[in-house]
Amino acid sequence: MSHTRKLKYHEEKLLKKTNFKHYRRENQKDVENIGRFGLKGKEEYAEYTKLVTQYKHVLKEISDLSDKDPVKQKLLGDLSEKLYNMGVIDLKQPSELVKVNASSFCRRRAVVMLVKKKFAEHLTQAFGLLSHGHVRIGPETISDPALIITRKSEDLLTWVDNSSMKKKVQEYNGVLDDYDLNN
């Protein structure tokens, strides 16, 4: 005979917001990706998975067209071109389109790209650089860690001119100009 006791006040308080009937178990892969790409939480990762779901739906609609249809080939070519330019796929081929997932987009986030391009050693440092306004793309200072860095803008990623980080890097590399020290 199992006898259950009445929950104590603090136990009720802790369990008030937990619904065990509809409790959804977390996917371990999602949790790893949230940490790996410096996402704010499950909601932000869910946005990327929603985007990929919509993308897969469009891809299925295109692939349902007849193989002889020239529109299908043009759409697949345009889509692969677009995703290649974004940096989401590695090759400009329609066969690469099926490999797109939420991680593909997360890899192109500004914080991840700063670590990849060796502007920062880890994601926390990259968040700090962005929040303090040390990084720019072309003439525009960026502060959004979720900004998707395209292949074209990846080459324009640099330090802000009056950034203390830029001076430290130049000093370390031995290329700091005496004129820049006074300005």
Automatic annotation (TrEMBL):
Residues 6-107 form the Small ribosomal subunit protein uS4 N-terminal domain. The keyword Ligase does not apply. It comes from the Eukaryota. The keyword tRNA-binding does not apply. GO terms for biological process: ribosomal small subunit biogenesis; rRNA processing. One of its GO terms (cellular component) is Mpp10 complex. Keywords: Ribonucleoprotein, RNA-binding. One of its GO terms (molecular function) is rRNA binding. SMART domains: Ribosomal_S4 (SM01390). It holds the Pfam family Ribosomal_S4. Belongs to the universal ribosomal protein uS4 family. This is Small ribosomal subunit protein uS4 N-terminal domain-containing protein.
